Amino acid sequence: MRTEGIWEEWLEFFLEGPETTARQAADAAVQILHLFEADRKKTQSLGRKAASALRVHEYMQGHPLIKIGPTAKALKLSVPTVTGALESLATLKIAKEVTGKRMDRLFAYSRYLHILSEGTEPLRNH
Question: Could you tell me which CATH number the domain at 7-117 has?
Answer without folding.
Answer: 1.10.10.10
